[in-house]
Write a structure and sequence with these properties.
There is one protein chain. This protein has one domain: 3-Layer(aba) Sandwich (Arginase, Chain A), CATH 3.40.800.10. A 9-stranded parallel sheet has the order 1-3-2-4-9-8-5-6-7, sandwiched between helices. Helix 1 crosses helix 9 and helix 3 runs parallel beside helix 4. The protein is an alpha/beta fold and 330 residues long. Helix 1 links the parallel strand 2 and strand 3. The N and C termini lie far apart (40 Å). It has 10 helices and 9 strands. Bound molecules: manganese (II) ion.
């Protein structure tokens, strides 16, 4: 058997029912699954996240987005899940993820479905190499957890250390890092690391009761701070309250609502995004597919915003050639 060819890796579901990348290799956007959950601190299962998010996304197949007025479908292909080792050291797993990501990012704007959050360090390495121009990237990080712990329960690295490592390695600019939804327990040095380094933390506590126009000043501040710097979006589904996303490994009560995260993603669409991941969806703990539908909708929101940005940057002649096909209703 080839590396990573586990039976569960061979499902054929594609995000939004998009074409396989092998069939449409030149689409501007690509989805890829990163089915690895070997670095969690609590409940495992996120290796099954990509398949479940894709299945939930099929409801959006007629998905003209109401804000951006586009469907990402025509501009999107699905590369399937990365074939990864799962009994090797984390550094080896990450090397495989990085190599896959580099290949995809060379030709596409890529969106990755996790997997636990440890995969983000490898994805950031690939994004930094492709889009950084020698400068650290900006990052917007939705999460209940700061992920700036300096170690993983005395192991060097895990799903809660990637941001500390990325800043230390110069992949990410701390002053261009914005965290949203943070609320878990932890030592102050970890919880406030990003702020101590010059970045911004919008805790879930500070966002209580704010939505719609009450979030506009925060959106404006983030856009002003990050400017046109190449920016990576990482969305840990546990940023949402467990009421909206119970299917995750380390749920934290008192979180964001789906509506708050959608408002922020819609308002931040004009940033210079280069890639996104959505991680920590663990379907075994889900109820009524709440978590997978939330994840699919948030990824779709990002893709719709970036598809609109892509189309607005294209010459009118090319646009006529790329007019989306009308999709069947239902
Ligand atoms: Mn988290």
């Amino acid at each position: 058997m080839s590396l990573g060819e586990f039976p569960c890796a061979n499902h054929g579901t594609r995000f939004l029912g998009a074409a396989a990348l092998t069939q449409q290799p030149h689409t501007p956007f690509v989805i890829a699954g990163v089915p690895f959950d070997g670095a969690v601190s609590n409940r495992p299962g996120a290796r099954f996240g990509p398949e479940a998010i894709r299945r939930a996304s099929l409801m959006l197949c007629d998905g003209i987005h109401p804000v951006f007025n586009v469907s990402p479908l025509t501009y999107l292909a699905d590369a399937g899940d990365m074939r990864l080792p799962n009994a090797s050291p984390l550094s080896d797993v990450r090397a495989h993820i990085e190599q896959h990501a580099r290949t995809l990012m060379a030709q596409h704007h890529a969106v990755f479905l996790g997997g636990d959050h440890s995969v983000t360090l490898a994805l950031l390495k690939a994004a930094h190499a492709r889009f950084g121009n020698g400068e650290p990237l900006a990052v917007v990080h939705f999460d209940a957890h700061c992920d700036t712990w300096t170690d993983h329960f005395s192991e060097p690295s895990g799903h809660g250390t990637w941001l500390y490592e990325a800043i230390e390695q110069g992949l990410v600019s701390a002053t261009h890092t914005v965290q949203v939804g943070i609320r878990s327990s932890g030592v102050r040095e970890a919880r406030e690391f990003v702020q101590d380094q010059g970045g911004v933390i919008h805790t879930a506590r500070a966002l209580r009761g704010k939505d719609g126009e009450d979030l506009q000043s925060i959106i404006d501040d983030i856009r002003e701070r990050l400017g046109n710097r190449p920016c990576y979006l990482t969305l840990d589904i546990d940023c949402l309250d467990p009421a909206f996303a119970p299917g995750t490994g380390t749920p934290e009560p008192g979180g964001l609502t789906s509506s708050q995260v959608m408002t922020l993603l819609e308002g931040l669409a004009p940033l210079n995004w280069v890639a996104m991941d959505c991680v920590e969806v663990s379907p075994a703990y889900d109820h009524a597919e709440l978590t997978t539908h939330a994840a699919a909708t948030l990824v779709w929101t990002y893709l719709a915003g970036q598809t609109a940005r892509h189309l607005s940057a294209m010459p009118q002649q090319a646009l006529a050639l790329e007019t989306p096909k009308r999709l069947p209703a239902g």
